Amino acid sequence: MRNTFLNSTSLINYSKEIYNCDPITNIDDIHFNSKDKSIFWLNTYGTYHTKEFKQIISSTALDDFLLKLISNDKHPNKVLELDNVIFVAIKVLKTETENFDTEQMFFILTPHYLWSIQEQKGDYFEWIRERIRENKGIVRSKKTDYLLFLILESIIDNYEDTYDDISDSMTILNETSDVKPTPEFTQNVEKEKNTIITFKRAANSLRDIITKLEKTEQQKVNKKFYSELNTQVNNLINTIDFDLQELESKINMIFSIQGHRLNEVMKTLTIFSVIFIPLTFLAGIYGMNFKNIPELDTEYGYFILLGVMLIVTLVSIYLFKKKKWF
Fold first, then answer.
1. Is 176 a domain residue?
2. Where, by residue number, does the polypeptide cross the bilayer (predicted)?
């Protein structure tokens, strides 16, 4: 079990002058000596390493309450300020999965080290590790609040890129011509709408966390970083809201067009019915089996009746056109 933990954990130690990312061979190698003011980034895949978590929390003199927080993988979005440490719990969308599953992430933040715990192996933070390794940008001159900023920014960027790809492939958002509201169409609409709502829910969760980080009272957090993140996530939510409104508008338009077509068909059928009702009435009268129907003995009775029927038809059509029914 310990080997599993070591294989699932990495430790990066860096500052302006130094960089170290040696493999962890023993859990005792995990220590945070902040005397040289360097930064430590400990990352662990898996939330089930309870024994190892307890040992690390104990050896680094962290609040024991953190162990209880980490052990619960059903946390709602949460930002807690403990003694000299900030605990963050967030549900993150797994954009690489077909059904957009979620995973729990924990962040334990102090001035000189950040411990990130991810429920599942694999992430999209490699570009951050590269910037630290290659000393690109300002990351190695900043503290852990900037590192957490980069991680949250990476999550937002991943949401944006994935959502852009998905919205571009949505048939209802991009095309409404020759669309018929079949059961398959309705199912596809529901699927696309659920996808948009899933991203909106994930973006709202992220905004909630960022807003809470902006309101933290501890001096270790530079709030201007998170104000920028708030702008980014708000832009994403605005885009999602716009697409959701556009989707609903196009759905309503499609069904309105189909309803109009159906009304036109019903109107045409009604007009034909109105025309043929009096003709059927006349045919029904002279089709009765009574002997004493005077017109039956008229020499030109048949042609007279056809003439009357023609006149009734023409008058009906004239009246319909006058009323602009067709």
1. yes
2. 269-288, 300-320
CA distance 106 to 44: 10
pLDDT for the residue numbered 172: 64
Integer Cα distance of 247 and 241 in angstroms? 10
> What does the alpha-carbon distance between residue 76 and residue 90 come to, in Å, rounded to a whole number?
7
Show the domain range for 279. Answer: 266-322
Short-list 168, 148, 273, CA closest to 213: 148
- In the predicted model, what is the mean pLDDT of the chain? 83
On whether residue 261 sits in a domain, the answer given is: no
pLDDT of residue 132: 92
Verify that 199 and 117 share a domain, yes or no: yes
Question: How do residues 227-261 score in pLDDT, each as one tens digit?
Answer: 888 899 999 999 999 888 888 877 777 777 777 77
Residue 275 sits in a domain whose CATH number is 1.20.58.340
CA 54 to CA 177: how far, in whole Å?
Answer: 60
Mark whether 68 and 170 lie in a shared domain: yes
What single DSSP character describes residue 47? S
Q: At what angle do helices 223-285 and 301-322 cross, to 10 degrees?
A: 160
Nearest one of 95, 91, 244, 235 to 163, comparing CA atoms? 95
- State how many domains the chain has: 2
> Residue 197's CB: how many other CB atoms inside 10 A?
12
Token pair recorded at residue 51: 């024994």
156 part of a folded domain = yes
